[in-house]
Amino acid sequence: MRNGIAAVLIVKNEEQVLGRCLESLAEVDEIVVLDTGSGDKTIEIAKEHTESVFTTEPIVPFHFAEARNRALAHVKQDWVITIDADEVLTPGSFEAIRKALWRHPGVSGFNVNFVLYDEEGKNPSRLPKLKVFRRGLWAWRYRVHEVLCSLAANVRTKDLLQAVIEHRPVAGKDGRRGQNLELLKLAIEENPEYVRNVRQLGMELYSRQDWDGAVQHLTAYLLSNVADRLDRSETLVHIALSHAMQGRYEEAVQRFDEAEAIAPERREILYHKGVALIKGCYLDQAVEALEKCLTIPVNVQPEFHLNLAAVWDGSAVHEALDFAKAQITEAKARLAAQQAQAKRE
User: Fewest CB atoms within 10 Å of the CB: 25, 167, 190, 255?
Assistant: First the structure.
């Protein structure tokens, strides 16, 4: 079928979410599911929605790009929607994709509107992400945190933000991120030029509360000079937070200030700085940072997938600010009481 569209998934032990994903793909011309070693009902659920369910020989150590390329080998259609089991294609998106293929014949890849939620289904963030592409012109690369790479020169991509794929993890899914630690280390050895994995390793260590390890790798990522301005600011924020978690507040403030100098329009920097200073009992400085945060106009909010809605609507900032001011008031009251007691004695 000319411009036929296949949805492609690699899966392992996804019985909790797979049905939801496959139901959202009912309009596609083909669904290809490659199982990489499930021990639950994943394969049975997949077969309820498609005949194209395959298994693959074990990949040890696991290689995500290799698995995805193996799945692509089973596709018969011209176009591919790559999607994970804990993601869903929202209503109306398939029609938008179908129309885009006919309207833009010279384009070989489309960036959809990718929406990420936390495990509670809250705090969405958005970014354009290459999720629709012409088969034969793209292949997956890198062992973990894999990316699509073009196989031809001068390929064209286009944003298709009317098409939306939502990432909706279930409770406990983030705990599986730990399995990526050794894969990340191996991936860095295999492809040292792909320094994005250095950042991913730093963030993995951050999630494990290995603060020194996080600082080391996130700093190395910054030194590579590949990060854009907003990404650099966010990396500095996590370096600052890592210092703060170990009581190194002078170093933390320095990194927060560097992040602010790079991206002064980001409220998130000052919000995280204020919260970190509250935890360190630097309440006056915290109030100063949080009040400054609120002076940043909403209309300068940058297009960045790590924007925090509760920071930009002010609710999280006011909550932290009220707490800090209440702590200051209590501290002053205690001091006044102590001084009064001292005079009486």
Answer: 190
